[in-house]
């Protein structure tokens, strides 16, 4: 929270705020829970960066706590619990994701709360934990569809070990019913809209923006995004779960984690998609290390101290701790090393996850200069049309400060929300090179420039005032869809 307002608002945060203003049971590229969370935040805490980023920070804190609790349920003592909790804190990918109000901030919490409930079911021999698993899985699916992976991994893990008897419990069937009921609203929405998420995923893969990795680079990436010093811990945890006699009743967890990693690798998912499963392995690794050093406790600080040091050194690369000029100097010391890459985007001068926090208000301000320079009669009929959801959402977030109307757009859920009655008689177009506009408008003229040096290169463009769209916008709208 100390760094919550250091830079600016993140692209996806803007989008989820826009979705919160269009509450629904689903959206083109994500389930509805994040929009509901954003709506609650807006109507209770407000829209400041501190307000938006409180719940993600609390989610990160809860993940630390749950990891320690899982360690205790696996038989870990005080050292193991402290080590597992400590291991979560400096993980680069977690430091990034728990900084923003996005569904990724809550995803590890849903995954690990589900796994913790499964561990408790086995430890306490109580099948009623299936009901908690059902609630967490159903809510997790409403947060992000990736919740299906740990759920499938858990069932597979139990099938392959003696603990499969838990799958014969009536509570297991009840948990399936709970999952179905919680996911049903979004499922109905998906059916009504012909499963737009599948089209979005297909187009996303075909766009070339994703970093698709082979098996060895994918696994090597895990060591980087989780922190190199922590790799021995989660590897040891996986080995302990598979081979240690004391871990026999937890073997299902090793199978579940392995299944998630292998499945996401086969599907060529982004390298960070598997990150939410690792707290389970950190917990197991901490127990393994505690057992291995029981008679040599002096060895424990030998591993703990490097974790802390590496975490301190890596933190400024993934958290907005430093002012931008100092960050750039620190980044150069690392020869431009970036611990996490989300997309195949040029990272100049800032990594993409920082660049996506810059330029949005400047974009709205430049748009307002062009919009407010129009005669009042024309202004009322002029749409602000964005080619990207970030641009449209930035206009909606900052627009009220500059007397701008809500934006329309062709990207993601903005396309579903339609042209809002605009005809295309006049439009200020964002994120275009002007070529496509000249094919449909009678006149196209530049009216401004968006060029923040710290923003992403594709968010530096010329604003165009376009008049006389043919055919009118409502007729052209179906062809404008960009998912």
Cα shape: globular
Report the uncertain regions.
none
Q: What is the makeup of the main sheet?
A: 5 strands, mixed
The arrangement of helices and strands along the chain is HHHHHHHHHHHHHHHHHHHHEHEHEHEEH
- End-to-end Cα distance, whole Å, is 33 Å
Count of runs of 4 or more consecutive helical residues: 24
The domain count comes to 2
The percentage helix is: 55-70%
Main sheet: strand order: 2-1-3-5-4
Helix-strand makeup class: alpha/beta
Please summarize what this structure is.
The chain has 483 residues and is an alpha/beta fold. Helices cover 58% and strands 6% of the residues.
What report would you give on this structure?
- The structure is a single chain.
- This protein has helices at 11-20, 33-44, 49-52, 54-73, 78-88, 92-97, 103-124, 129-143, 148-159, 170-192, 196-206, 215-225, 231-243, 251-266, 278-292, 300-318, 324-333, 352-355, 360-372, 376-380, 389-398, 413-416, 435-438, 473-480, and strands spanning 382-386, 408-409, 426-430, 441-450, 461-469.
- It has 483 residues and is an alpha/beta fold.
- The protein is globular and about 80 Å long.
- It has 2 domains: 11-311, no CATH class; 360-480, no CATH class.
- The longest helix has 23 residues, at 170-192.
- Strand 1 (382-386), helix 21 (389-398) and strand 2 (408-409) form a beta-alpha-beta unit.
- Helix 13 (231-243) packs across helix 15.
- The model has no long low-confidence stretch (mean pLDDT 94).
């Amino acid at each position: 929270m100390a760094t919550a307002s250091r830079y600016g608002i993140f692209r996806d945060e803007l989008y989820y705020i826009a979705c919160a203003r269009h509450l629904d049971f689903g959206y083109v590229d994500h389930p509805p829970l994040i929009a509901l969370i954003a709506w609650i935040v807006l109507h209770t805490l407000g829209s400041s960066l501190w307000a938006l980023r409180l719940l993600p920070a609390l989610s990160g804190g809860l993940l630390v706590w749950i990891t320690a609790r899982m360690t205790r349920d696996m038989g870990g003592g005080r050292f193991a619990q402290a080590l597992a909790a400590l291991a979560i804190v400096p993980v680069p990918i977690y430091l990034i994701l728990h900084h923003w109000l996005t569904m990724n901030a809550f995803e590890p919490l849903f995954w690990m709360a589900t796994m913790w409930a499964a561990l408790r079911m086995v430890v306490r021999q109580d099948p009623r934990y299936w009901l908690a698993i059902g609630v967490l899985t159903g809510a997790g699916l409403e947060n992000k569809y990736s919740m299906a992976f740990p759920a499938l991994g858990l069932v597979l893990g139990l099938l392959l070990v003696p603990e499969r008897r838990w799958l014969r419990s009536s509570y297991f069937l009840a948990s399936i019913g709970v999952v179905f009921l919680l996911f049903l609203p979004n499922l109905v929405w998906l059916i009504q809209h012909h499963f737009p998420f599948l089209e979005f995923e297909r187009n996303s893969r075909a766009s070339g923006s994703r970093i698709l990795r082979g098996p060895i680079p994918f696994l090597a990436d895990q060591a980087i995004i989780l922190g190199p010093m922590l790799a021995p811990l989660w590897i040891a945890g996986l080995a302990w779960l598979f081979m240690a006699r004391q871990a026999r009743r937890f073997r299902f967890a090793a199978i579940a984690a392995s299944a998630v990693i292998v499945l996401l690798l086969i599907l060529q998912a982004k390298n960070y998609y598997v990150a939410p499963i690792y707290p389970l392995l950190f917990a197991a690794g901490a127990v393994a290390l505690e057992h291995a050093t029981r008679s040599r406790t002096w060895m424990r600080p030998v591993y703990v101290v490097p974790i802390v040091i590496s975490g301190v050194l890596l933190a400024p690369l993934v958290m907005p701790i430093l002012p931008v000029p100092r960050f750039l100097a620190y980044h150069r010391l690392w020869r431009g090393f970036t611990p996490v890459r989300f997309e195949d985007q040029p990272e100049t001068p800032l990594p993409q996850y920082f660049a996506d926090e810059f330029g949005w208000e400047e974009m709205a301000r430049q748009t307002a200069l062009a919009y407010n320079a129009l005669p009042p009669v024309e202004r009322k009929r002029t749409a602000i049309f964005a080619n990207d959801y970030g641009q449209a959402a930035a206009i909606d977030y900052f627009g009220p400060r500059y007397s701008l109307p809500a934006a329309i757009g062709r990207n993601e859920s903005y396309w579903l929300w339609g042209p809002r009655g605009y005809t295309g008689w006049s439009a200020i177009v964002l994120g275009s090179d002007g070529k496509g506009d000249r094919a449909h408008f009678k006149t196209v003229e530049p009216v401004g420039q968006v060029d923040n040096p710290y923003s992403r290169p594709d968010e530096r463009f010329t604003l165009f005032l376009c008049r006389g769209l043919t055919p009118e916008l409502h007729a052209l709208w179906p062809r404008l869809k960009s998912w």
